[in-house]
UniProtKB/TrEMBL annotation, chains A, B:
<dbReference type="GO" id="GO:0016831">
    <property type="term" value="F:carboxy-lyase activity"/>
</dbReference>
<dbReference type="GO" id="GO:0016787">
    <property type="term" value="F:hydrolase activity"/>
</dbReference>
<feature type="domain" description="Amidohydrolase-related">
    <location>
        <begin position="19"/>
        <end position="365"/>
    </location>
</feature>
<keyword id="KW-0456">Lyase</keyword>
<dbReference type="InterPro" id="IPR032466">
    <property type="entry name" value="Metal_Hydrolase"/>
</dbReference>
<dbReference type="GO" id="GO:0019748">
    <property type="term" value="P:secondary metabolic process"/>
</dbReference>
<protein>
    <submittedName>
        <fullName>Amidohydrolase</fullName>
    </submittedName>
</protein>
<dbReference type="InterPro" id="IPR032465">
    <property type="entry name" value="ACMSD"/>
</dbReference>
<dbReference type="Pfam" id="PF04909">
    <property type="entry name" value="Amidohydro_2"/>
</dbReference>
<dbReference type="InterPro" id="IPR006680">
    <property type="entry name" value="Amidohydro-rel"/>
</dbReference>
<dbReference type="GO" id="GO:0005737">
    <property type="term" value="C:cytoplasm"/>
</dbReference>
Length: 377, 377
């Protein structure tokens, strides 16, 4: 892959602006230490991160999960990470906006809830100071200690009103599907702060989370990746059948990195079962596909591309891609999707909506004139 | 629904013979008691069935899970249940064959493994004597105490060579995905006895099984039904990536009652991930979709029908329905699929393969002249 920052690549089709809904940037432990309370700063100095990790259970791809080309600087100069992802990704693909989704989801699955809360706050503050305030193209995600929904809501209220924080984010791995009423304080805080709720694949079966499938632990990473989608399905059905969108009509939910084409047969099934069984959940007034269309978004990477090319567009329509799909690259992970190569040919309107408009509307991102480097300073 | 046995209905399209791959017939506790060892017979007399049950956790549909029209006789005359399902289903739809899949999957999730083994043996013997030996159209499934794969293999060897036993069957709910090596004695016995291995949805998250989703317990039956498919996905990925079909090239696996259209995006995803990650599981020599095509079958009910009618046939081709799909009615459950109504229009060849040929080949069922009642006696 070309790593020269001066090599600007025009956006897909040449005209479409790009919002990338899933960028992982380095958030170094040394960097967030100053934001931690003294007790945890001292613990971290002795014990390190001390968080459950996926890689202790399941292999990943690439080099430690990232593209081999991604080798961020190891020195601690303040802007070095930012400059690196600018050169490698943001400038290179001339992104209009990039949504940062965080770098360590282990916080969502440690049993030490106060430590999780401290790490979330420190990491949120670090991201604001070292990324968001230095490049107006970058937007942030509020990590929360979801182990304690009341504490989580406090963190959303603390930092969620920052103009560059555009969503709340949690790992896909969980102990209960996210429609469960135990999470309600989180959704109240999301609505109060006008923030969508994003679920990003990670930490399935790790730490305090439930095993990664309904049949227990899997053995290999390929199975593990498949299991992530299954868990996202469970969250989606849970949001709908628990009536979360009836209780919180302004809530939006984003499903990040769990694939996309699976949504089609899944909503066919949910709609059928709802028709037959809706007397059991009378608060679910509309077919499940309607709640999906009105309240949920799905990001593109990784795309399950049908080998039968003629099925691509019908599948895109079946998942309501025109309104519900948003492009994500997952930079810098090994299964990165280049905006130039991710999709087969689409009509201009669909391209515009997937690469830009759907995310711009959801995150309320104003159209902006693309400056050379996009830096505010 | 018409319940008069004299109302014979011609098979779909008038010419196609029908093999129904999922029929549940009553196996009464009083009926199997004589087949139990004395210790369990006495326990059953005091405590009843004593098995974990889905309905204690999650609602079902219809009347206790069955169609309202299904009201089998309560007297204990030897042939009354058999005569009832003949009149209600087998004669009515003029079935060529019907595969009986059992009536109580709680045996697969009790912690009392020897009790499970005794119940499986008793139920298998009852089915042979009271159904299979009295109607040559009915074929049976060997229930096994999967809690102990060695004991399970013994039951397969004990009863699996009976000419009317055509498969081994277990519940979809499990503590480990079925590709795990702990189950190998079962697959050795399947191959030794020339029997396919069927996974039937049931008992997800019940008794000793893992919670029904990778995010823990769901709240409602509609979610629960969606979760069953997720678990079947986990089993499918597990069989493929653990290399079960490499170790047992003659093994066939049937996925019963978990839907069918989901297979398409699922194998697209598995094939892509295998391409990128196959160095991690080098024993998986072919793309996952090839193992599915050669070793797995899926039954039809419940069918996720696309609301976009023009997608039906492309989806059928994408799941390789011509070779891999077999019709199932799930009689007498509330979500029963009539062979006359289950499918939209298909070409004759596909209809013939789904309703008859695929099952006839898999179960090695000879073509037979349809006798009026099909009874041997």
């Amino acid at each position: 892959m070309e790593t020269n920052a001066s090599t600007k690549i025009k956006s897909p089709g040449g005209k479409t602006s790009i919002i990338d809904c899933d960028i992982h940037a380095t958030i170094p432990l040394d960097g967030i230490k100053p934001y931690l309370p003294r007790i945890y700063r001292e613990q971290v100095e002795t014990w390190g991160r001390r968080l459950p990790g996926q890689n202790h259970m399941y292999l990943n791809g690439g080099t430690n999960g990232s593209m081999q080309e991604h080798q961020p600087p190891r020195n601690k100069e303040e802007d070095s990470y930012l400059n690196y992802i600018r050169a490698q990704h943001i400038d290179k693909f001339n992104l209009e906006y990039g949504i940062m989704t965080g770098s360590d989801y282990g916080v969502h699955t440690t049993p030490d809830t106060d430590y999780a809360a401290a790490l979330c706050s420190a990491s949120n503050d670090y991201v604001i100071e070292h990324y968001l305030s230095r490049d107006s193209r970058l937007k942030g995600s509020v990590h929360i200690p979801k182990q304690d929904p009341i504490l989580a809501a406090k963190e959303i209220d603390r930092v969620g009103s920052h103009p560059d924080m555009v969503q709340v984010i949690v790992s896909n791995g969980a102990i209960k599907p996210y429609g469960n009423r135990m999470y309600e304080p989180i959704y109240e805080a999301c609505v109060r702060n006008n923030l969508p709720f994003a679920i990003h694949v990670s930490m399935e079966g790790i730490g305090i989370n439930n095993p990664p499938t309904g049949a227990g632990y899997v053995s290999y990473y390929a199975e593990y990746r498949a299991a992530r989608t299954q868990i996202m399905m469970a969250h989606m059905a849970s949001f709908i059948f628990e009536g979360v969108f009836v209780k919180y009509p302004d809530l939006k939910v984003i499903m990040v990195e769990a694939g996309m084409m699976w949504v089609a047969p899944f909503i066919w099934r949910l709609d059928q079962d709802w028709k037959a069984l809706r007397h059991q959940t009378p608060w679910v007034k509309e077919p499940p596909s309607e709640y999906y269309r009105k309240h949920m978004k799905v990001t593109s990477q990784p795309i399950e591309l049908p080998p039968q090319k003629e099925m691509f567009m019908p599948m895109m329509e079946a998942i309501y891609a025109r309104e519900n799909l948003m492009f994500a690259s997952d930079y810098p992970h090994w299964d990165f999707d280049s905006p130039l190569l991710a999709f087969p040919k689409m009509d201009e309107e669909m391209k515009e909506r997937i690469f830009y408009q759907n995310a711009a509307e959801l995150y309320r991102l104003p159209a902006r004139k693309q400056a050379a480097g996009g830096a505010r300073a």
